[in-house]
Design a protein that fits this description.
With 324 residues, this protein is an alpha/beta fold. It has helices at residues 8-20, 23-30, 34-48, 64-87, 89-92, 102-119, 189-194, 218-225, 242-251, 264-269, 298-322; strands at residues 53-55, 60-62, 95-100, 124-129, 143-148, 173-187, 209-212, 238-239, 255-259, 273-291. The chain has two domains: 8-87, Arc Repressor Mutant, subunit A; 90-324, 3-Layer(aba) Sandwich (D-Maltodextrin-Binding Protein, domain 2), CATH 3.40.190.
């Protein structure tokens, strides 16, 4: 029996418009012009005989007919994507693309990836790094690791501020929490030996303070978290990435406040030491993110179960090292 269906491309355009509630955003996602999107929607409406969108000046909204059509189209496209993934040559070859923050990738993830490859020799991990928000509707990645705050999480809202944007675009996502974002003040052991003694948090201000431009509140919030309230921070060096901050700290240029997860190996090797024993929780956590309908795909499940185990081991090791 011949199937009586509109064109797959028209349905794909409809799903993108309904998800974004914007012809402009859908056009950007699909890499076509807004006019092309409008023509596809108009043709689809003419073919099925009902209006699907109410057009406003800067936005659109679904009509009752469009709202009734959207869930089925979205579910069908998700299932089609899953089916294609099962036979896609790239997926069949076991290639998993993971997007991660640069310093997290270098200092935490990459040293552990050999273990994942040993456990799952048929899965090849392609690691891409960026500090930008991930857009699963545009970026060719399967998983992303970002740090930030998710509504409804148990991350304390009144902790050290973290205003990093984790995602862009539209679509249902799943977030698997890996570990809390704990800030620690670190420095080179030579700097600590040569500089004035630190008997309490206030003494940190006797040293140059190294800043990361993407976490501009880190020092002020860390000091507040350990009981030191300063209205104006000294003008000290600012760096664009944490790996630059860490390089400066290793050279002895000053004290840095960084996420503890980024300095586990530096502290274990003695290259860096805690300038103060306290850590301060930020208002965010590290999360593994993926598209909701791909959450249980075998490769993604293998990676998220492995990284959850590694995160738990990392937390246990940190707790043991901090114990008196």
């Amino acid at each position: 029996m011949r199937r009586r269906l509109p064109s797959l491309n028209a349905l794909r355009v409809f799903e993108a418009c309904a998800r974004a509630m914007s012809f402009t955003d859908a056009a950007a996602e699909l890499n076509v012009t807004q006019g092309a999107v409008s023509r596809q929607i108009k043709a689809l409406e003419e073919e099925i005989g009902v209006p699907l969108f109410v057009r406003h000046v800067r936005r659109v909204e679904l009509t009752p007919h469009g709202a009734a059509l959207y869930p089925g189209v979205r579910a069908a496209l998700d299932e089609l994507e899953r089916s294609v993934a099962k036979v896609d040559r790239r997926k069949a070859a076991g290639v998993l693309t993971v997007s991660a923050l640069p310093t997290f990738a270098m200092n935490w993830l990459m040293p552990r990836l050999e273990d994942f490859s040993t456990r799952h020799p048929t899965i090849e991990v392609h690691l891409v790094t960026t500090i930008g928000a991930v857009d699963f509707s545009r970026d060719d990645v399967d998983l992303a690791i970002r740090v930030g705050r998710i509504d409804g999480s148990d991350d304390p809202a009144d902790a050290a501020r973290i205003d990093l944007k984790m995602t862009e675009g539209h679509g249902a996502l799943k977030a698997h929490r890996l570990m809390a974002d704990e800030l620690i003040a670190i420095a080179s052991p030579d700097l600590m030996r040569a500089g004035p003694p630190i008997a309490g948090p206030q003494d940190l201000l006797s040293y140059p303070l190294l800043h990361n431009a993407t976490r501009g509140y880190a020092w002020a919030d860390f000091l507040r978290g350990v009981g030191v309230h300063v209205d104006v921070m000294p003008e000290e060096p600012k760096f664009g990435h944490y790996f630059m901050v860490l390089a400066a700290a290793r050279r002895g240029d000053g004290i840095a406040v960084v996420p503890h997860v980024l300095v586990e190996e530096d502290m274990a090797s003695g290259r860096l030491v805690a300038a103060l024993p306290q850590t301060v929780r930020s208002a965010g956590s590290y999360y593994l993110l993926c598209r909701e309908h791909q959450y249980d795909l075998p490769m993604i499940k293998a990676f998220r179960e492995w990284i959850a185990e590694e995160s738990a081991s990392s937390l246990a090791a940190s707790a043991k090292a901090a114990a008196p």
